[in-house]
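Workshop exercise sheet. Pairs work together: one partner reads the sequence aloud, the other fills in the structure field after running the prediction. Swap roles for the next sheet.
Pair: D.N. / O.F.
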Amino acid sequence: MSVSSNHQDKDKSDLNKFGYAQELLRSMGGFSNFAISFSIISILTGAVSLYGHGLTYGGSGMMGFGWPIVAFFVMCVAAVMAELASAIPTAGALYHWAAILKNKRWGWYTAWINLIGQIGIVAGIDYSVALFADPLIASVFGYESNNTTVLICFTVILLSHGILNHIGIRIVSKLNDFSAWYHIAVVAVLVLSLAFFTKGSLNPVTYLFKVGETFSDKPYMFAFLIGLLQAQWTFTGYDASAHTIEETINPRVRAPWGIFTSVAYSFVIGFIMLAFVTLSIKDAGAAAGSSNAFIYVISEALGGTFGSVILWLVTAAMWFCGLASITSFSRMMYAFSRDNGMPLSSQWAQISKKYRTPAKAIWLAIILSFLLAFIDYIIKIVNPDATYTTIAFLTAVSVVGLYVAYGIPIYLKLRAKAEGRFQTKHLGPWNLGTYSTLISVIALLWIFFICIIMVIPPNQMAGYAVAGMLILLVIMDLAYYKNHFPGPQAALNKSMEEILRREKELE
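Structure field:
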């Protein structure tokens, strides 16, 4: 028997002890698992689409200081999540962790809050693609890009991602592998182009760390905090490595490394890219005041034709990011529906017999993401004087939803450790050892801090949206799910102690 077959048999047995059959195709290697999170983080999506937001509020210093500050704390969050993924390797991930560490109701709320964040991240990513693609297409075909044409472009992009995810995990897995290398290659092309072909000279390195300059009406320190959305939204979605854990070979080791290294590599490569883009700025005020600061900076630095080629390459990278995000979103929805946590769960938990993908969950993810952007489009028609931007709204919703969902199992793990219900023997092979508690506390404090920053003006619309969704969740819970949600199989009558005992029985 091959090493791969031995691993797959062990992985199947490992999943069985949590109460689940191996339904999804387990074919992803370590690089593929890393690639899906790296592609969703996509420094060529978050850092680029919100470059104007960061520059407007924090000036050039946002790139020199804001990016590393956020990256440090996010790596703490990622490390604790990686530890949990190694201990509890199921596709339900966050909400399975919460249910096992506390109870099914904590798991239910975690799942729905995660879904809110997933809707926001898919909508935000594909809307970012549309914001870049539509003006580029408009320049070719001679029409004027506006909110309506961007929405149409957004819809077409969503449909392309839905079709490919429906067809099969093998195709998407290969595209995600390619996406990781493509991101690195495009960043290299962008950096080298700016280093050697920028019109005029680059700014001195000290410009990257210039503080005190803001192009907003807010005091600089407050504006700087608002500008952190640029980096914070970029570092989202790395839980994808956990959501695809049932499709990964040797998941207790490979998925945790996928979570952590996707953040670490994105930090380093992203910082290099942002440094050269920022050092090539000719007029920061003009860039901040333009409709798309990144496009403005690249066009000014590299010229029309060359700049357009680079922008097309960046847009393609964003498209790959959206493709991976649909994969993650649909797997989470499939896992939650498998546990009867959603209306019409039996539909969303179905696996396509031909493609072995959660086809209906994939298309539900597409529809929900479209609706979030469409509702915002209608609001803008009714209130054309709204000062917030669609992309800031979508990204802030995703940051708050995802990071609250990240924080719940981290908090519950600390409580379980304090009560003696989660001990060293419950950890998987990937763990933080004696530093686990300290890093968990740092991660929780950062999540609390950043979630507040993301919903204060000018992002208050995101706060209203998240609050409205949370009120709806409470109504759903009290009206039905409090008494009818059975809880995930991973947590039904299974404490961590019982799971360990069953593992020994299956060995």
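Discussion prompt: The chain is about 75% helix and 0% strand. What would you look at next?
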